[in-house]
Design goal:
With 274 residues, the protein is of the alpha+beta class. The protein folds into two domains: 1-106; 108-142 and 178-267, OB fold (Dihydrolipoamide Acetyltransferase, E2P), CATH 2.40.50. Helices cover 24% and strands 32% of the residues. The protein has helices at residues 92-105, 112-120, 148-157, 166-171, 201-213, 218-232; strands at 4-11, 15-17, 21-30, 35-41, 56-60, 62-64, 73-76, 87-88, 108-109, 126-129, 133-141, 180-187, 193-198, 237-244, 256-264. Strand 9, helix 2 and strand 10 (126-129) form a beta-alpha-beta unit. Helix 5 (201-213) packs across helix 6 (218-232). The chain is globular.
Length: 274
């Protein structure tokens, strides 16, 4: 089985799975512009040198995850295949490499209905999308702690799936649950208005950092998150990495969520020759 070269573009905030434990949905793009979802990945239980960053290149052997019908979902052939990243795609020359792969090689959608129809036909579950206009960034309060019964069941059921040794399993602390869910409101090229939840790990991490910097003042922390995600990045050439959730892929009127953001800075103006 040959290794595939995948540029990691998406890491969602960790969730709890009764079967796999604490997992992260990782997604990326191959060199030919096709998408792949790598699941499950117990990211925080990987060794430090294996904890890849966004826009790292991985070379991994992947097999279809037969428990997930979505067409782009694969799983690592074994734990050893989550190796140290083999490279990183930076932002040199005004994001030239990222622009080429993501905006030219890959398809960019601008109408949400095309993606909804594609998901219903099980033809697509990952995509890059460009909103025509972002109108708001909002949040909603959620349960503040994980269900303790689910945590216990998860720990009991996932011992055989743990990628770490027994010592790390016993001391591993489940990540804190986010007390808020975040969403973008936007319009697409057809004028369709939508609101999609943001599952990006960076949004969750930003909230915790802002909460720390404001000494636990939640309204101030939320205002700082909004400043970053609405006041700042919407001034750039903003694209969304979209994905469907397995639970709602076939049944929801709109199964798509925002699994990552791509705020590309504007290209510099070309200087004329004198």
């Amino acid at each position: 089985m040959e290794k595939q070269r995948v540029l990691i573009t998406v890491k969602t905030y960790p969730t709890l799975s009764r079967k796999y434990g604490e997992t992260v949905c990782t997604a990326g793009i191959r060199q030919d512009g096709t998408w792949v979802r790598i699941y499950p990945v117990p990211f925080r239980r990987l060794n430090e040198e294996q904890q890849y960053k966004k826009y790292d290149w991985l070379e991994v052997r992947l097999v279809r995850n037969t428990t997930d019908p979505r067409p782009e979902t694969y799983r690592p052939f074994d734990s050893a295949d989550l190796e140290k990243p083999v490279g990183h795609m930076g932002t040199d020359d005004h994001w030239r490499e990222r622009r080429t792969l993501l905006l030219k090689t890959a398809r960019v959608y601008d109408r949400l209905d095309d993606l909804i129809v594609g998901a219903k036909a099980n033809a697509i579950s990952l995509a890059l999308f460009k909103p025509t206009r972002v109108t708001d960034f909002v949040w909603e309060e959620e349960e503040r702690t994980w269900d303790p019964d689910k945590v216990r069941e998860m720990r009991d059921a996932t011992k055989q799936y743990d990628f770490a040794d027994n010592t790390r399993r016993e001391t591993f602390k489940v990540i804190d649950k986010l007390p808020y869910s975040f969403s973008f409101k936007f319009e697409d090229a057809a004028g369709k208005k939508s609101e999609l939840q943001v599952l990006d790990w960076e949004a969750g991490a930003l909230y915790w950092n802002c909460l720390h910097s404001t000494d636990g003042d939640e309204p101030k922390a939320l205002a700082k998150v909004r400043q970053k995600y609405f006041d700042e990045i919407t001034k750039k050439d903003l694209h969304f990495f979209l994905g469907t959730t397995q639970q709602f892929h076939f049944v929801a009127p709109n199964p798509w969520v925002i699994v990552g953001v791509l705020p590309i800075p504007p290209e510099p103006a070309q200087l004329g020759l004198f």
